[in-house]
């Protein structure tokens, strides 16, 4: 079956080259140009695109992402199908995925696994904590859908925090997609302006309740003072036993020095803040560096995933949970 799948893939891929190129143009136009027109970051599309692919290729169920991406004006489902149809046919015939999208064994991740591996690690950490908290705060939520699947039927109060424009676009699109948002409170914030906590409390957040904060794919867009200040606020204004799930990137990664050719996509996606972006030196003992940093803000790291640790280039990011005690 694998050989038949490979033959079908090669033939369709060759015939499809012009279509795939058209697909790339459509995806880039929507993700970069339309996002710019709308005044929203194009990187949030990168994540939901990864989640859509994971769903389509059977790696992780996420019906809400499938519905949401299909109505977002800055994404192109047609473009995605034009690019991925040959791989999809191969997957349907053989039952396996090859190359991309994929989830390699822990610590053997490369840059192409950033969204897929990060997503499953974070899902596992959310699963660990979701039954013992009363509030879930998705910090810099982008187009994340965990409030609409993992927390949908739960008693946990859900809050989504993000910049105003992307949040408005998300609410509009969730409504268009027919996704029930009645259990989610949206709070527009900017983590680099230190008043975000007041906005959250005004929206109904209770600092006396045990809370799970998710801060995924955001620290690299902030400078160190904003990251530290946000950590301080989460710790100060949450009940004992509250937890943060987060990812922090290697300095080499945020500076575009981790791999050859990283600087151009970072420039195109607008993530090239260079020396102002927050990252840690994860080259020596990454676990220790991470726990020392978190301890300096009074948080105790629990489980850690060191993505890329067993590859030639080494760790490019960490995913972890930390007790805010
Ligand atoms: C790469 S996206 C990740 C989105 C989401 N957490 C996910 O994993 O799907 C980064 C998100 O961080 C948000 N963000 C970046 N800087 C921010 C800031 N200063 N204040 C609030 N949100 C911010 C962006 O608007 C965007 O939605």
UniProtKB/TrEMBL annotation:
GO biological process, one term: methylation
Protein name: S-adenosyl-L-methionine-dependent methyltransferase
Keywords, ordered alphabetically: Membrane, Methyltransferase, S-adenosyl-L-methionine, Transferase, Transmembrane, Transmembrane helix
Annotated SUPFAM superfamilies: S-adenosyl-L-methionine-dependent methyltransferases
Top-level division of the source organism's lineage: Bacteria
Organismal lineage: Bacteria, Pseudomonadati, Pseudomonadota, Gammaproteobacteria, Vibrionales
GO-annotated molecular function: methyltransferase activity
Family affiliation: Belongs to the UPF0677 family.
Keyword Membrane: yes
Keyword check for Oxidoreductase: no
Family annotation (InterPro entries): Ppm1/Ppm2/Tcmp, SAM-dependent_MTases_sf, SAM_mthyl_Trfase_ML2640-like
Protein species of origin: Photobacterium proteolyticum
EC identifiers of the protein: 2.1.1.-
Function (record text): Exhibits S-adenosyl-L-methionine-dependent methyltransferase activity.
PANTHER family the UniProt entry points to: S-ADENOSYL-L-METHIONINE-DEPENDENT METHYLTRANSFERASE YKTD-RELATED, S-ADENOSYL-L-METHIONINE-DEPENDENT METHYLTRANSFERASES SUPERFAMILY PROTEIN
Regions that span the bilayer: 6-29, 68-89
Enzyme class: transferase
């Amino acid at each position: 079956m694998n050989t038949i799948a490979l033959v079908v893939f090669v033939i369709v891929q060759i015939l499809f080259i012009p279509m795939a190129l058209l697909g790339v143009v459509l995806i880039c136009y929507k993700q970069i140009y339309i996002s710019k027109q709308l005044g929203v970051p194009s990187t949030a599309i990168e994540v939901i695109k990864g989640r859509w692919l994971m769903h389509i290729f059977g790696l992780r169920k996420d019906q809400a992402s499938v519905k949401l991406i299909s109505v977002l004006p800055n994404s192109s489902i047609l473009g995605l199908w034009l690019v991925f149809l040959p791989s999809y046919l191969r997957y349907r015939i053989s039952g396996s995925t090859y190359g991309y999208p994929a989830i390699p064994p822990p610590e053997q991740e490369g840059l192409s696994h950033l969204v897929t591996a990060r997503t499953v690690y974070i899902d596992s950490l959310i699963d660990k904590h979701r039954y013992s908290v009363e509030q879930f705060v998705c910090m810099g939520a982008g187009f994340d859908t965990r409030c609409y699947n993992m927390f949908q039927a739960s008693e946990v109060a859900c809050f989504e925090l993000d910049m105003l424009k992307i949040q408005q676009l998300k609410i509009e699109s969730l409504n268009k997609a027919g996704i029930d948002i009645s259990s989610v409170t949206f709070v527009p914030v900017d983590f680099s302006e230190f008043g975000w906590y007041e906005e959250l409390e005004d929206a109904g957040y209770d600092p006396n309740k045990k809370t799970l904060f998710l801060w995924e794919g955001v620290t690299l867009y902030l400078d160190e003072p904003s990251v530290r200040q946000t950590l301080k606020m989460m710790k100060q204004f949450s009940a004992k036993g509250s937890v943060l799930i987060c990812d922090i990137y290697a300095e080499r990664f945020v500076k575009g020095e981790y791999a050859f050719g990283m600087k151009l996509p970072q420039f195109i996606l607008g993530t090239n803040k260079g020396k102002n972006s927050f990252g840690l030196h994860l080259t020596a003992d990454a676990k220790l560096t991470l726990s020392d940093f978190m301890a300096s803000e009074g948080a105790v790291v629990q489980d850690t995933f060191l993505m890329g640790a067993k590859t030639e280039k080494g760790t490019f990011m960490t995913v972890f949970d930390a007790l805010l005690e």
